[in-house]
Specification:
Layout (H helix, E strand, L loop, with lengths): L2 E3 L5 E3 L27 H28 L3 E8 L13 E4 L4 H8 L8 E8 L8 E8 L6 H4 L4 H4 L7 H7 L4 E2 L2 E4 L12 E4 L3 H5 L12 H6 L8 E4 L19 E2 L6 E5 L6 E3 H4 L12 H7 L7 E8 L8 E8 L9 E7 L9 H27 L16
Parallel strand pairs: 4-5, 8-13
Antiparallel strand pairs: 1-2, 3-16, 5-15, 6-14, 6-16, 7-8, 9-15, 10-12, 11-12
Length: 401
């Protein structure tokens, strides 16, 4: 151990071996050679000109791609400020892109949740659409980004856990339990799931060409693999014969087999603690009990949006649509918007290398480029008529003692 001498000749250990002083190297002592550019007016003006000249053409190109390559059709089918005709809940009416918004909302709009009102919405294609053609539902004035909303979930429960921490229970409140019945999944996000059912109705030609809306592959694969699983202890079994598919306790918790509407196959299943737990498929019958929280529409909804006006993917077509085609959907309207003064729309659109239709991206490039050119012109005039010499001592300010 090293020592040092004090004024009274006492030797005091320095503990150099235990020092936390960085090593005496160029990297540790920040003595590496570096280039520090000087913001000379000429270089600043040239840089601003380069940015401006580059950004403005890019902005116009992005706008041209958005306007010419992206084809989008949107129909608003429910809104709080338009009166829905609630007397026609049991009928199916047809609306098209040529109908007014008032007519569409009157035929599709609902006054209360889970009415199940059915209507047909037709998109008349007046410009070729090259697949894939995306189908979105668009919601306005719904704040998924509110802190009390996006924290209201139990990630462990969504991964299959049957136990719940006190913190997760408080985050899910008040939609954690209903009396002695546990909600699984709990929380505001899961229990405000968008439960409108959108079904594509092909015409004869589309049926011949096997045109169908695909609803698989719409969620993030990472979410499906690492964030959502059926409850621990869940099991299901495909039956060989629907007539002999019996749900017998205690091996199976179902009252009757589940029949998959897509292929007609029958399944029986078991959910743990079924008598004290209310599961997702019981809250939303359109969700298969076999899939539960792994249903891709549910997974898409659980990834909250950043803005009050947002779109979420419902499905897509791999086929092309030609000018003159008609794309018809049947909507079973269950999700109420009047309570939060919102609206719902059905959107079909193509995409480009920059995503969907987005005029703002091109406008941002144009505005930034224009600002850079304006700044370059301003500094150039200033530099020409009233230049400032670098290192001029008259610009230095000293603190007066």
């Amino acid at each position: 151990m090293k020592t040092r001498a004090t004024d009274d000749t006492t030797m005091v250990p320095t503990a150099a071996s235990n020092s936390r002083e960085p090593l005496d190297t160029a990297v540790r002592q920040q003595r590496m050679k570096a280039w520090t550019p000087i913001l000379h007016p000429v270089w600043v003006i040239a840089t601003l000109i380069v940015i401006g000249v580059s950004f403005i053409p890019v902005g116009f190109k992005i706008k041209a791609i958005s306007d010419n390559e992206v084809v989008e059709y949107k129909i608003l089918y429910d809104a709080y400020d338009k009166d829905g005709d609630i007397s026609s809940n049991t009928t199916t009416t047809t609306t098209t892109t040529t109908s007014t918004e008032d007519e569409i909302v009157q035929s599709c709009g609902i006054e209360s949740a889970n009415e199940g009102k059915s209507c047909l919405v037709e998109h008349s294609i007046n410009k070729d659409m090259k697949g894939p053609v995306m189908v979105y539902y668009e919601i306005e004035n719904f704040y998924q980004n509110h802190r009390e909303y996006y924290t209201s979930r139990d990630d462990a429960q969504l991964l299959g856990s049957l136990t719940q921490s006190s913190l997760a229970a408080s985050e899910c409140s008040p939609l954690n339990k209903l009396g002695n019945i546990t909600l699984n999944p709990c929380g505001l996000i899961a229990n405000t799931f968008f439960n409108d059912v959108i079904t594509f109705l092909p015409n004869n030609e589309q049926t011949t060409n096997n045109v169908q809306m695909i609803e698989d592959g719409i969620a993030w694969q990472s979410d499906l693999e690492y964030r959502y699983r059926q409850p621990d202890g869940f099991k299901s079994e495909e039956c060989d014969d629907c007539a002999n598919c019996v749900c017998e306790s205690p091996d199976w918790s179902c009252n009757q087999p589940y029949v998959d509407p897509r292929d007609g196959k029958c399944y029986r299943y078991f959910y743990p603690n079924d008598d004290t737990t209310h599961y997702l498929y019981e809250t939303y019958p359109m969700i298969s009990p076999i899939k539960g929280v792994t249903d891709e529409h549910f997974v898409v909804w659980m990834r909250v949006a950043s803005f009050p006006k947002f779109r979420k993917l419902y499905g897509y077509f791999e086929n092309d649509f030609k000018e003159g085609d008609t794309v018809t959907f049947r909507i079973e309207n269950n999700w109420q918007v009047k309570r939060f003064k919102g609206s719902k729309s059905l959107v079909i659109t193509t995409t480009s290398r920059y995503g969907g239709k987005n005029d703002r991206l091109g406008d941002c490039f144009i505005v930034i480029g224009g600002c850079c050119l304006f700044a370059a012109a301003f500094f150039a005039v200033k530099h020409i008529f009233k230049p400032r010499s670098l290192g001029d001592e008259k610009y230095l300010k000293y603190k007066v003692e």
